[in-house]
Amino acid sequence: MRLKKFFLICATFSIAFSSCNKDDDDAPTFEERDRGEQALEDDERLVEYLSTHFYNYEDFENPSEDFDYRIEFDTIAGENADKTSLFDSEELITKSVTQDDVEYNLYILKVREGEGDRPTTSDSTYVGYTGQLMNDQVFNDNMVSPVWFDLPGYITLDSNGRPARAGGVLPGFSESLVEFKSASGYDVNPDNTISWTNDYGIGAIFSPSGLAYFASPPSGAGIPGYAPLIFKVNLYRTVEADHDRDGIPSWMEDLDEDGDVYNDNTDGDNFPNHSDADDDGDGTPTRDEILIREDGTIELTDTNNDGTPDYLDPDFFK
User: Fold this and answer.
1) Which of 75, 142, 156, 311 satisfies CB 3.0 to 4.6 Å to 286 for a cystine?
2) pLDDT tens across 236-284, in order?
3) How is residue 60 annotated by DSSP?
4) What are the start and end residues of every segment in region (Disordered) (predicted)?
């Protein structure tokens, strides 16, 4: 990959939606499955997979000179009958994630945490990944050619001038990446390609369908509805995002610190704070109501000393 393009490429892992025409009495109706019941079914399937498969942990414990540091799964059977299952691996963690009022078990294999920066759910990440189903069918492989992921996405205006969401990744993917760290550095090769320090985060994600595409997988992707998904990931780089370029990093615009930047909207318009260049709607851009120092650090000024920073205070404006 060319260095000039490296910092400009931004790929998104978008969520597809389907709808029914309610005005057509002859159109078949679609009844979505109950999310709570599906969560239980998915968890049973994931636990079964984790209990009957192992990863190549011995290769990571004693890596050969030509080892590619890629995770491989195999079934515990035959000559592999004595292998430690994924479910019993010390590297497997279980993370509880609530989505649409349903609590899910998200399983994350942390083969190597990494030594660089840890992303928040509001950042951009450069990731090599392979996506597969539980029958080991691969539906996407970008391990050799990593891509940028804008984890939360943002609100912008569509071609009709209406607010619309752009970018963003699947909840299970985002909630898992924050458990890893990126590489601590990189070198630029003579051919202008990048070689990453071999301390980047390596792992795998085992996501229930409720934290993936649920009933609406993207058309033509080879992913059936209600499919739990598995991702093998290498996290190479993390970049602090400022989606609205107002001088305040998007993670700081998550005012209630619940990991969701979309429910923080100070002025109550169609744009949450991380997508709004004038957070308090007073007509003065946020960038003009904060102090950005020469070293890039920011001060959230409170000119009238009422306890609310100027950029969030509609009663103060310049």
Assistant:
1) 311
2) 999 999 999 999 999 999 999 999 999 999 999 999 999 999 999 999 9
3) H
4) 246-318
Phi/psi at 171 (5° precision): -55, -40
If we measure between CA atoms, which residue out of 200, 147, 190 comes closest to residue 169? Answer: 147
244 is written with which tokens?
């609205």
Among residues 197, 4, 175, which one has the least CA distance to residue 103? 175
Q: Under 8 Å CB-to-CB from 277, ≥6 apart: which residues?
A: 244, 245, 246, 285, 286, 287
Instruction: Report the C-alpha gap between 210 and 95 in whole angstroms.
Output: 14
Residue type present at position 245: R
Give the CB-side neighbour count of residue 57, counting CA atoms within 13 A. Answer: 18
In words, the CATH class of domain 3-239 is: alpha beta
Domain map (residue ranges) of the chain: 3-239, 242-318
- Whether the CA torsion 231, 207, 201, 145 is positive or negative: it is positive
pTM of the model: 0.88
Q: CA-to-CA distance for 222 and 117, rounded, in angstroms?
A: 34
Task: Look up tokens 């490429």; give the residue.
Answer: 9
138-142: long-range contacts at Cβ-Cβ below 8 A with a sequence spacing of 24 or more? 139/221, 139/222, 139/223, 140/221
Q: What angle do CA 72, 131, 198 make, to 5 degrees?
A: 55
Residue from 228, 212, 194 nearest 99 by CA = 212
Cβ atoms of residues 140 and 13 within 8 Å: no
